[in-house]
Request: fold
Amino acid sequence: MVVYWDTLVLLNLVLDYLLLLLTGRVAGCVLCRWRIFLGALLGALYAGAIFWPGWVFLGHALARLGCGVMMVLIAYGHQRRLLRPTVVFFALSAALGGGLYALELMGGGAPLDARFVLLFAAAVYAVLSLFGRHMARHGPRELRPVEVRVGQRRARLTALVDSGNTLTDPMTGKGVMVAEGRCLASILPAEADFRQPCGCFAALPEPQRFRLLPYRAVGVDQGLLLAVRADGVTVGGRELGPRLVALSPTPVSDGGGYNALIFEE
Reply:
């Protein structure tokens, strides 16, 4: 059987990317797509390296196991708990491999066409992704770049798309982004003390731009956040227009991987 190295690597790149992406959705991890791509690239190059002269030892079970663990570390190393995505990744890999092997046997043992393999993997991804969102502890969670504009000043953040963020503007009903106040301090007036929202409100130079928003969180039955009406908010290249941005006095990430929580639209 003739193996075309470039086709093999490309096929494995797509399959590994889908597997890692599905792993994050099922395990409820924060999705960072460039990390997922790098993890898939490692897996694709590993699959191609097995066929290099003198590199047959890479086909050993321990080498395969080590490569799989490295792929998960690259894709989800920014998570605090890695056991769950690791187990999910190997379970999904085994399920996909078993399904393809069964289809090959049903076809009389003939090798499956690469296009059929991709179509089958895409179908598995679509079905399991649908169920995976309900299995995860949270809704879809993904990191996206955010730009906040106040006047002529701009601040760039990394936001987590989190369905648990239900804070809304009571005037418009639109979702409110929650950002760490320190990350926006450079584009706000010095009087905007997000640590003491009530005490600073009367001294703000543009009181019409600011609001006090009530909120509830774990350990906080009732509190107030200082919120600024930004002239524009861009999420992942998508312009959302003027929006309220609530200023959190404490970090919004337990691991520092992001500094804002964005609503879903």
In short: The first helix runs from residue 5 to 27. The chain has two domains: 5-135, 142-262. The radius of gyration is 23 Å. Residues 135 and 220 are 28 Å apart (CA to CA).
